[in-house]
Design brief:
The protein is of the alpha+beta class. The chain is built from four helices and six strands.
Length: about 160
């Protein structure tokens, strides 16, 4: 399997193949607008603005699996991200990231880059996966790892 074999649904409802991002460095993040880590949207947007022309794509996947900290409707999520954090990077339809109903992309990411002590489960909102230009998952970052803290890892792949 490759990351490019997965399809996702955009926040506006269109099906999109991740193959569209072939050749780019990807930072894939499960997000939640009502989470205490939501200020990281600002740092993620800054990474997007600073590095999109060099081949970085930040991809946000809203999820309500952690204390129901995401808005109900995709349109409301998109609006909150835009108004509160100026988000212009791609957001996708709300998904589950853990359990039987987890999106296949997240099952793949968690399997390719296990967390602490080899756990595959996503621990919380704003877990980040860094994917190289060949589609290989190279790193997993904890929710407490800010976008600024992982900037150097991104720069190495660009």
């Amino acid at each position: 399997m490759s990351i490019y074999q997965y399809e996702v649904k955009s926040i506006t409802g269109e099906t999109q193949a991740l193959e569209a991002y072939k050749g780019k460095v990807l930072l894939i993040v499960n997000t939640a607008t009502k989470c205490g880590f939501a200020p990281q949207f600002d740092g993620l947007e800054q990474l997007h603005q600073n590095y999109k022309d060099q081949g970085l794509a930040v991809l946000g996947f809203p999820s309500s699996q952690f204390m129901n900290q995401e808005l109900e409707k995709d349109a409301d999520i998109a609006e909150a991200c835009r108004i509160n954090h100026g988000v212009t990077f791609p957001l996708f339809s709300k998904i589950d990231v853990n359990g039987d109903s987890a999106h296949p992309l997240y099952k793949y990411l968690a399997g390719e880059a296990p967390g602490a002590l080899g756990t595959k489960a996503i621990k919380w909102n704003f877990t980040k996966f860094l994917v190289d230009r060949n589609g290989k998952v190279v790193s997993r970052f904890a929710p407490t790892d800010t976008p600024e803290k992982i900037k150097s890892h991104i720069e190495k792949l660009l």
